[in-house]
Design a protein that fits this description.
Radius of gyration of chain A: 23 Å
CATH topology of the largest domain in chain B: Fumarate Reductase Iron-sulfur Protein, Chain B, domain 2
CATH superfamily of the largest domain in chain B: Alpha-helical ferredoxin
Helix content of chain B: 25-40%
Number of domains of chain B: 2
Shape of chain A: globular
Largest interface: A-B, 64 and 73 residues
Helix content of chain A: 25-40%
Strand content of chain B: 5-15%
Number of strands of chain A: 18
Order of helices and strands of chain B: EEHEEEEEHHHHHHHH
Oligomer: heterodimer
Bound molecules: flavin-adenine dinucleotide, FE2/S2 (inorganic) cluster
Distance between the termini of chain B: 53 Å
Strand content of chain A: 15-25%
Strand order of the largest sheet of chain B: 2-1-5-3-4
Largest sheet of chain B: 5 strands, mixed
Chain lengths: 582, 240
């Protein structure tokens, strides 16, 4: 079946790319603010199923308790982020979070776990001064996303399942964003969508590492599209590794997270010799130290030869009692049991795993970018979490900023004019996307096979742009990325565009490479150690020089701008956190 | 399982848009330790057949994208390990749903029926956003809430829909997942839509079409019991 340039066109007011927490909250709130808007949600996976919000396990941070406060949540967030956060974004996060919990409960129908007295239960998460994590068991995201999805059915919102955005399209060269080029997976057909406002919410996604946690379809598409469209990206070196990714042999399940609440509840991390090695890295907080420290400690243990034969360390919850573990972490116990481990009674092998990208598109608290017509929300956006995200602040970010994007979109639609997407630009994007079709698919062993290229990228990133970095390794990674960019440009896919997973993979790897290059470039630039960015050749945190954000844009940068310490400065909160790897 | 073992997998291939016929294709998969059926499908795609079509997202049993019929029974491809399955392992698309290609089915009929029960919660018009107020106080151990809590674990994967014999012969039957959702939202003490919403589920194609075969309970990958929801709806056992 020959492919033709986009025959189908679509016109709407608000086009939302992605259906995680950010995309769905944006759709529902834009609609509720102005029901007459024509709203379209389009998603690479199935709407209501795809993305990481669904995979949220541990829960959602919100200062609900009278003894807690947004100020306190803010302080934890900034300390966790080692002062690199955009403080106005972080403030928006903590001040909206309690309201979002109320909205989810009273309007969306989410039901969170209760305390014995019937009020919402909040549990302990690492790096926080108060137990403020709202949850539903240990599989919180399923309930949040299922109920958000149900609400779509109550509103006149058009949905395009399994329809990926391929490129943002301007109204003219250098102009505003006026829509996007979309690709329907099942039919292989393209749609040129025109919108007054586009909301980018594809969830970032660090799948360019050997071990990573996100859902499989997330491949940095949002970063790549925004970068190509001319947006600024911030802090792309800040990649969070979660300390406890399950090791599951040859399965893709490897890297999937065992939730943080386990450590919050007192689970231990052991090396192969049975030592609680956190005693050497953070004797005070031990396993409840922030993720960056715990993940790096595990990595250093493995590198020092104290890892298990499977290449990991051990997460041991058995001393908490089988009843407690099975009662509080049934989802985690089931996941372990599936691959033969007994979480309630024996240690389980784990590895650090690439989990969340703190970097992303530069936005303001209303989710506006410097590009008229384009809003960004959720993991695609950067700046909220600084150098390290606290567990429980991710889903909070996607819901808070998703709602804000929805409101901003509705507001802007009242005044934003309509502009048709530039057909020349759309045609070029279409041609680039369809180039691989019909070229020979090389075998994995010989030639330009997209799966082999992905594997090579993941290895290079894991080895050189991982938990501990240095200049030589980062240069090596950038060289490898250059070679792989070259190789993917020659990769092929079967000619028939319908439900063509190999073709999708070529497009995915192209995007992963953009995200990987941005990550490695910024990581090379930041010659200090801060949060999740650790440089063995520059092991100290250097506030005098590096209290700055690193920006990159197509054809520009990297460049730095000082962090605006608009609410809290490092000196004001006592000693800064330990930063350097041992 | 020793690494490098070969496992035979038979995959139902079908490309209706190309006018193809249904056929079985056999593959010998290099089965590493702990590999799931989904891992095996990826292995085939990456090593042997770049045209194979299937659906996935989370690979951890949470999203419900990968339900299919494995060795004759519905399940999640990412949650079934090759080492626990009798070889040759047969893999087919879900039943009672149109096939787009190979293992990829069109879930629209399933979601159309889900939508038909008004699955969405309806809160108070002046819902409580006041920071001083507290969302509903629901003591632990509330009997109805305990049932509802289990039934909302549904991941809408379609396994029960595929396994239900009534769905396959009564096209208008709403099916287990939709009816389960109807119960869960109607029995939610916080919902304000009233019993109004139950009219659809007690009409034709609703709870009275169920024959209580119970396949839905057997195949549910997350331990939901749709049959119980259907029985409670039949008895009108939704109290407020
Ligand atoms: C295993 C795991 C556990 C986690 N646990 C927690 C936790 O306990 N607490 C917490 O706060 N955070 C947690 N997080 C982080 C949290 O999930 C994310 O921060 C958050 O969900 C991101 O939301 P989002 O809406 O930006 O993106 P997502 O929810 O990931 O949604 C992205 C959407 O975009 C779609 N998409 C992708 N590419 C395209 C494209 N090209 N075109 C169109 N659509 C596209 C995807 O299919 C998906 O629908 C966890 C993450 C993982 C991976
Ligand atoms: S891929 Fe999500 S349930 Fe299998």
């Amino acid at each position: 079946m020959p492919v033709t340039s986009p025959r189908e066109t679509l016109r709407c007011d608000v086009l939302i790319l992605g259906s995680g927490g950010a995309g769905l909250m944006a759709a529902l709130h834009a609609y509720d603010a102005e029901p007459r808007l024509r709203i379209v949600v389009t998603s690479k996976g199935l709407i209501g199923k795809s993305g990481c919000t669904r995979l949220v396990q541990g829960g959602f941070n919100a200062a609900l308790d009278p003894d807690d406060s947004p100020e306190r949540h803010f302080r934890d967030t900034i300390l966790g982020g080692q002062f690199l956060n955009d403080q106005e974004l972080a403030w928006a996060l903590v001040s909206d979070a309690p309201e979002i919990i109320r909205r989810l409960e009273t309007r969306i129908g989410v039901f969170f776990d209760r305390r014995p007295d019937g009020r919402i239960h909040q549990k302990a998460f690492a790096g926080q001064s108060f137990d403020r994590t709202v949850h539903r068991g240990d599989l919180t995201g399923i309930e949040i996303v299922s109920r958000l999805h149900d609400q779509l059915f109550a509103r006149d919102i058009r949905r395009l399942d399994e329809t990926r955005a391929v490129a943002l399209i301007h109204d003219r060269p250098g102009g505003r964003v006026a829509g996007a080029l979309l690709l329907r997976h099942a039919t292989g057909e393209f749609i040129l969508a025109q919108a007054r406002i586009v909301v980018l919410a594809t969830g970032g996604g660090p799948r360019m590492y050997t071990f990573s946690a996100p859902s499989l379809e997330k491949t940095g598409d949002g970063y790549a599209m925004a970068y190509r469209a001319g947006c600024d990206l911030i802090d792309m070196e800040m990649m969070q590794f979660h300390p406890t990714g399950l090791l599951a042999g040859a399965s893709r399940l490897s890297g999937m997270v065992l939730e943080e609440g386990l450590r919050g509840a007192g689970a231990h991390l052991l090396n192969a010799q049975g030592e609680r090695f956190m005693a050497r890295y953070d004797p005070e907080r031990m396993e409840r130290a922030t993720r960056d420290l715990v993940a790096r400690a595990s990595y250093l243990e493995i590198m020092a030869g104290r890892g298990t034969s499977a290449g990991g360390v051990l997460l041991d919850a058995s001393h908490l009692g089988a009843d407690f573990v099975l009662g509080n972490f049934p989802g985690m116990a089931r996941r372990c049991a599936e691959v033969g481990y007994d979480l309630a009674r024996a240690p389980v092998p784990v590895t650090p795993t690439a989990h969340f990208h703190m970097g992303g598109v530069r936005i303001d608290p209303g989710c506006r970018t410097a590009m008229p017509g384009l809003l960004v929300a959720g993991e695609d956006a950067g700046g909220v979490h600084g150098a390290n995200r606290l567990g429980g602040n991710g889903v909070a970010e996607s819901c808070v900023f998703g709602m804000r994007a929805g409101f901003t979109a509705a507001e802007l639609c009242a005044s934003a004019g309509e502009a048709a997407p530039d057909t020349t630009e759309a045609e070029a994007a279409y041609r680039a996307a369809t180039t691989p079709l019909g070229r020979r698919v090389a075998s994995r062993e010989h030639g330009e096979n997209p799966f082999a290229i992905r594997d090579a990228l993941q290895r290079a990133m894991w080895e050189n742009v991982g938990l501990v970095r240095d200049d030589a390794g980062l240069r090596r990674a950038l060289d490898t990325i250059g070679t792989l960019e070259e190789r993917i440009s020659r990769a092929g896919a079967p000619a028939d565009p319908r439900a063509n997973l190999t073709w999708q993979q070529v497009l995915d790897v192209q995007n992963l490479l953009v995200a990987a290059r941005l990550t490695a470039t910024a990581a090379r630039y930041r010659t200090e150690t801060r949060g999740s960015h650790a440089r063995s050749d520059c092991p100290a945190r250097d506030d005098a020089r590096w209290l700055v954000n690193i920006y990159q844009a197509a054809g520009r940068g990297p460049w730095t701008e000082p962090v605006r310490l608009s609410r809290l400065a490092p000196g004001a909160v006592g000693s800064p956190q330990r930063a350097a790897p041992a | 399982m020793p690494a490098g073992r070969k496992v035979s997998i038979r995959v139902r291939r079908f490309d209706p848009a190309a006018g193809g016929r249904r056929s079985w294709a056999a593959y010998d998969v290099d089965a590493g330790p702990m590999m799931s059926v989904l891992d095996a499908l990826f292995w085939i795609l990456e090593h042997q057949d770049p045209t194979l079509a299937f659906r996935y997202s989370c690979r951890a049993g949470m999203c419900g994208s990968c339900a299919m019929v494995i060795n004759g029974r519905e399940g999640l491809a990412c949650a079934q390990r090759l080492e626990h399955l009798r070889a040759p392992v047969s893999v087919e698309p879900l039943r009672s749903l149109p096939v787009i290609k190979d293992l990829l089915v069109d879930l629209r009929p399933f979601f159309d029926k889900y939508r038909a029960v008004d699955p969405f919660y309806v809160g108070h018009a002046a819902a409580v956003l006041d920071p001083a107020s507290e969302p509903a106080v629901v003591p632990r151990g509330d009997a109805t809430r305990e049932i509802v809590d289990r039934q909302i674990d549904c991941i809408a994967c379609g396994a029960c829909y595929s396994a239900c014999p009534v769905v396959s012969i009564v096209p208008e039957f709403l099916g287990p997942a939709a009816l389960n959702r109807a119960y869960a939202v109607a029995a939610d003490a916080r919902d304000t839509a009233g019993l109004e919403r139950l009219r659809r589920v007690t009409a034709d194609g609703g709870v009275f079409a169920c024959h209580s075969v119970g396949n839905c309970v057997t195949v549910c990958p997350v331990g939901v019991n749709p049959l119980l929801s259907i029985q409670l709806l039949r008895k009108g056992a939704v109290h407020r």
